[in-house]
Automatic annotation (TrEMBL):
InterPro entries, sorted: AcCoA_carboxyl_beta (IPR034733), Acetyl_CoA_COase_Trfase_b_su (IPR000438), ClpP/crotonase-like_dom_sf (IPR029045), COA_CT_N (IPR011762)
Protein name per its UniProtKB record: Acetyl-coenzyme A carboxylase carboxyl transferase subunit beta
Statement: the UniProt record of this protein carries the keyword ATP-binding: yes
A cellular component annotation (GO) from this entry: acetyl-CoA carboxylase complex
Organism taxonomic ancestry: Bacteria, Bacillati, Bacillota, Bacilli, Lactobacillales
Keyword terms, alphabetized: ATP-binding, Cytoplasm, Fatty acid biosynthesis, Fatty acid metabolism, Lipid biosynthesis, Lipid metabolism, Metal-binding, Nucleotide-binding, Transferase, Zinc, Zinc-finger
GO BP terms: fatty acid biosynthetic process; malonyl-CoA biosynthetic process
């Protein structure tokens, strides 16, 4: 019996060389690696950590609301999660697109709002979700953001909005565009009460969101390399018939042109917001 060595099973469709090579090649489990969209390197998921940052090029991966809440707050209580569209929209396939977005993200809509705390400092927090129809702004998103500002005004609280959006949701037509004015009105009412509004621009912040409440903050912060602009780069290039620079609409370029106050590394964002909220709280005490 010792003269015979057991051979691996080889199907008629399989090359013996392939079997031999496969025995030498280590198996890589699925879902453990991700390709960085900036440096194109393959990164082990555990290496990007809770802040979701590429260890090779410092690229900030896009985050879900739950991930942002985890790294930005000590406490969070969600509000207005049962909001529905006020006007029915009959756009082909829209219901299926929304259903798929809900199943994929586990969220009801493209923005999450609620009452948050960093240390002992309370504030209203709104986080737009780039994974829910690219954070597009429709009736429900507009209503939830408006209610967030109104509640912040009523409670005399600061508000922080993390923007991430492709703009107004085209399936809802004029009803999505109306949200720009509605939210801006609520922002102004909050401002007239002398309350603090901070925007945190994340990748991407574009379209009607940029043209309204994203740029209305008292303090405008951005994450590194976030795309911030109105029309898309390709649209502008096609219209102007010229090639735009690689860093066009990148946060660093937007800051250099005076539209952003500071670019804060994601690992320092919570501490930075805590400092701003603390200073504002002290100012309120001395009024």
């Amino acid at each position: 019996m010792g003269l015979f060595k057991k051979r691996p099973y080889i199907s008629l469709k399989q090359n013996p060389v392939d079997v031999e090579e496969s025995e030498k090649t280590p198996m890589i489990p699925d879902g453990k690696w991700i390709q960085c969209p900036h440096c194109q390197k393959t990164v082990y998921l555990e290496d990007i950590g809770e802040f979701q940052i590429c260890p090779n090029c410092d690229y900030h991966f896009r985050l879900t609301p739950k991930q942002r809440i985890s790294i930005m707050t000590d406490e969070f209580e969600e509000w207005f999660n049962d909001e529905q569209m006020k006007v029915a929209v009959d756009f082909p396939g829209y219901d299926l697109k929304q259903k798929k977005a809900r199943q994929t993200t586990g969220e009801e809509e493209a923005v999450t709002v609620g009452l948050a705390k960093i240390s002992h400092l309370p504030f209203v927090l709104a986080i737009m979700n780039p994974y829910f129809m690219m954070g597009s702004m429709g009736q429900v998103v507009g209503e939830k953001l408006t209610l967030a500002f109104e509640e912040a005004t009523k409670r005399k609280l600061p508000i922080i909005v993390c923007t991430a959006s492709g703009g107004a949701r085209m399936q809802e037509g004029i009803f999505s565009l109306m949200q720009m004015a509605k939210i801006s009105g609520a922002v102004q009412a909050h401002h007239l009460e002398g309350l603090l509004y901070i925007t945190v621009l994340t990748d991407p912040t574009t379209g009607g969101v940029t043209a309204s409440f994203a740029m209305q903050g008292d303090i405008i912060i951005s994450e590194a390399r976030a795309i911030v602009g109105f029309a898309g780069k390709r649209v502008i290039e096609q219209t102007m018939k010229e090639k735009l620079p690689d860093d066009f609409q990148q946060a660093e370029t937007v800051q250099a042109n005076g539209f952003i106050d500071a670019i804060i590394h994601r690992t320092q964002l919570k501490e930075t917001l805590k400092t701003i909220l603390s200073l504002h709280s002290l100012e309120e005490e001395f009024r």
